[in-house]
Design goal:
This protein is mainly alpha-helical and about 300 residues long. It is about 70% helix and about 5% strand.
């Protein structure tokens, strides 16, 4: 795995963080553009690597196909990075002004294999010298209408690779830096707001609900109301951090079970059917276990956001 592939993997990790993932997934067009772009960045890098592992070739031994493939892979990778920027930051890359090296690669591709038979409004026409094709170079002859003359360029393929690779690495580094900064800014909002502290005192309320089952404790309903309010507050705080509490599948599963328990307990309390209710006791036992599980998850969330 080379530098570009490492950086593409790092972007995937950042994109798939539950907080970022929920935000991106709300816009299906952007999400699918992003996914396609990440795939193509990696796929084209595989193609580029494959070209430079080829044995010697010429125009008679696959040279045109290999050269066309390499230049097109450069171009596709550039497009993918541009569309990655659009999907993440709503911003297109200005190749010509900000990344002149990669713009040179882009224009050379357009001249040699993109639109060689007509560039612009008959502005120029281009010809790859068949005899010149090899792993290391090719010669491009270009006729410019406004100059009324032919110009020749000997293209060093290794230099093209270096221009492409250096620019791509710089752009991906910028993407990673922006995403990491965005995430750090998001985390700072919750540094001093520990979600796990919301569970303080719930053990007391749980014990009072049990007393309602065993001894008809008159404030069992009030304490159960405190439990419900706490669960709803936890949900909202998780949503503040991740967009939706469903972003965390483990948390979502635990809360689904807790919600079911609360629904059943509510019914028994409203029907004044708590005293000596064996089913209610079993449900509260399950609630205590699920709540302890949730508490551990909330501590993990606090660790992430500190």
């Amino acid at each position: 795995m080379n530098a570009i592939e490492h950086k593409e993997k790092r972007i995937r990790d950042l994109v798939n963080h539950p907080w970022k993932l929920q935000t991106l997934f709300e816009d299906k067009s952007k999400w699918n553009k992003l996914c396609a772009s990440m795939d193509v960045i990696g796929d084209t890098q595989i193609a580029i690597n494959d070209f430079f592992s080829l044995p010697s070739f010429s125009s008679n031994t696959g040279g045109y196909l290999f050269l066309y493939g390499l230049l097109q892979a450069f171009f596709l990778q550039q497009d993918a990075i541009n569309h990655l920027s659009e999907a993440l930051f709503n911003k297109q890359i200005d190749w010509k002004n900000d990344y002149p090296d990669i713009y040179h690669v882009r224009e050379l591709r357009n001249d040699s294999i993109g639109h060689p038979t007509k560039r612009g409004s008959d502005k120029s026409f281009h010809f790859i010298a068949r005899y010149s094709i090899s792993n290391g170079m090719f010669r491009l002859m270009s006729y410019y209408s406004d100059l009324n003359k032919h110009l020749y360029r000997d293209v060093n393929i290794q230099e093209l690779k270096e221009k492409q690779e250096n620019s791509v690495i710089e752009i991906l580094d910028n993407v990673i830096e922006l995403m990491e900064k965005e995430y750090e800014e998001h985390k700072k909002q919750f540094t001093n707001n520990k979600i796990s502290e919301l569970t303080n005192g719930i053990g007391y309320s749980i014990s009072k609900v049990y007393e309602g089952i065993y001894n008809n404790y008159p404030l069992a309903e009030m304490n159960f109301s405190i439990i419900k309010t706490t669960i709803n507050t936890i949900k909202k705080e998780i949503e503040n951090r991740y967009g939706k509490f469903s972003a965390l599948k483990g948390v979502e599963d635990v809360i689904r079970r807790i919600d079911h328990i609360i629904q059943r307990m509510d019914r028994w309390i409203n029907e004044n059917n708590l005293l000596n209710n064996n089913d209610a006791e079993v449900f509260m036992d399950s609630f205590s276990d699920r709540f302890k599980e949730l508490e551990r998850m909330l501590i993990e969330i606090d660790d992430e956001f500190k």
